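User: Need the bound-state model for zinc ion:
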Amino acid sequence: MALHELSMASGILETVLEVASKNNAKKVLEVVVEVGELTLLNPDQLSMAFNVLSEGTIVEGAKLKVKVIKARARCNACNEEWDVGLGDLPTVVDHFTFLTCLTSDSKKFLKSVCPKCGGTDFDFVTGKELVVKSIKIEK
Ligand SMILES: [Zn+2]
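Assistant: Bound-state model below.
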């Protein structure tokens, strides 16, 4: 199992356990998460990691639903927004390097340019999220 998915799944589990205990849950039945495309998380591996980690907790057996959020960029020069295709992403970097570039100077690593003005100064509007959207519990 990939380390990346494992550490992300453990973060999700922590959040879920916290919310569940605040709501006096006896059992967690379902968890919905939104995952940005740029996180490069594999939804199947994420679910698998989540299932393994939740064993022995009240989350054991819960269904993890993963919604993948498309990556969009916005040009800082002209405010144009566009979809960043995964084809614009670098192909030969490992997860760790890639995540580091995302949080620092991601633009260097993307082949994408603004379709309107050709600018390379842009930010991501969506695509980097990893959010626990909702959980279903039994009290
Ligand atoms: Zn532009």
